[in-house]
Design a protein that fits this description.
Largest sheet: 9 strands, mixed
Helix content: 25-40%
Strand order of the largest sheet: 2-1-12-11-13-14-15-16-17
Number of strands: 28
CATH class of the domain at 52-197: Alpha Beta
Radius of gyration: 23 Å
CATH topology of the domain at 52-197: Rossmann fold
Strand content: 15-25%
Length: 552
Amino acid sequence: MNTTHFAHWPPGLPYQLLAPETSVYTNLHIAALRYPNKPAIIFYDSVLTYAQLDAEVLALAGYLQQVCGVKRGDRVLLDMQNSPQFIIAYYAILRADAMVVPVNPMLMTDELAHYLADSGAKVAIASQEVFPRMLPLVGTTGLAHAIVATYSDHLTVATTLAVPDFIRAERDVPAQSGISSWQDAINAGLRPSEHLAGSDDLACMPYTSGTTGKPKGCIHNHRSVMFNIAASPVWSGAIVPTHVALAVLPFFHVTGMQSVMNSMIFCGGTLVILPRWDKDVAGQLITRYAVTNWTLVPSMMIDFLSNPRLAEYDISRLTRVSGGGAAMPAAIAQKLLELSGQTYMEGYGLSETMAPSHLNPPQRMKQQCLGIPYFNTDSRIVDPTTLQEVKQGDTGEIWINGPQVFQGYWNDPQKSAEAFAELNGKRYFRSGDLGYMDEEGFFFFTDRLKRMINASGFKVWPAEVESAMYQHPAIQECCIIAARDPYRGETVKAVIVKKPGSEVTAEDIMQWAHEKMAAYKVPKQVEFVTSLPKSGTGKVMWRSLQEKEATK
């Protein structure tokens, strides 16, 4: 194990951390016993205490078991935006001894069909505004039962905050076999059976993708999920019950799920929820509730600090501002430091590591840096061809060994085997990301071994988008690459060869794509060409197109 970075370890912290050997649900139960009357969630000024949160979780877990037939180890799809209902559903699924399958609420019907078929989920919990895209799948696929949540059910007090229409919307749930309203499920008052899930039971399966195009489920048990829940707060200076987090990073994404939602509940803190990014409402919430912790992606901070109304907001109570997914521009990090005294803490992780494997130490933070391998984690830079560790400063693939690493890909033993490799008798996860380690043991990202586009923290897998694009009748060939974007960091570009005689326009292509896939995957740029570069074996040489784009 490389120990160079130990010289910069947070003072007073051990190199190894012992995480609880209990289910993730138990964290909520303990917090509810300790702080029953303390706000767990603040949702546009409406408060849900820990006792109320746990009570709704138990009621929904009972409904999942007794009405929907959910059994230990079953997968349950969770499709909604940040809300009290997301948290309740997440913990209810775990309390029912089942596995959470969190999906992006921007997904369209065809995309949802894949997740349902691949995971084998027979039950889904979705929010009202996204449910129309799931409705055609109820009863016509393996999806036998859906519970539909209405966000406004948790708007219990008047507010001066700007509440989006989709949050204010009244309950409107289809009266159809196999579909239940959230309120009916809670009001049934059913109690779940004894909680049986332990450390080695299935807990959560976020999806990722790769060169084959179809998303793959990352299998995590309670043990691998629990580790980062317990470790992240300790590393960053401890989250305590009096801390308040602005929860705007999506909960379906492992960073928002782990570093915000689950960590705050583990510590008994308060989550101030913002379902959709709004720089003014964010400023009002930070001020009104004396927010201490904010995890975000750079595009949010860029937007927040450029707000003409910034001076109206009090961000002086912030004690930790952190994030990942993309490097924070140096000028923005400097402006944050000047305004709040906070240095932006960057980290690195993947769906396969259920959030961080690397973090910058609080007392020695480097910018545009992944950080150092943190508690119980061994990371190496390895030549992806020779599978031998490279010299310090040389570029190679980032390999990770640690308790947060996933157990493999769902129903895909070949991809699971390919994702791991041995080095000096130890098994490492191969991240597919290229980087190097400096003389102090800090890791830096340089490139991707895998094809992937990072648009404001959302991962876009080109092969998946290409597969969808080929359904367009005017497209003969298509290659998806990353294009630079001043706000999103990267954005999606389609390089297309049209079928002979086609008069389709770039606008036509983009409008069509919006109907077929989640908005963050839709090409924001379209370039028509007469042919795509190909290798001697006929494969499209996407890297040459990518390199050409990078020189623009």
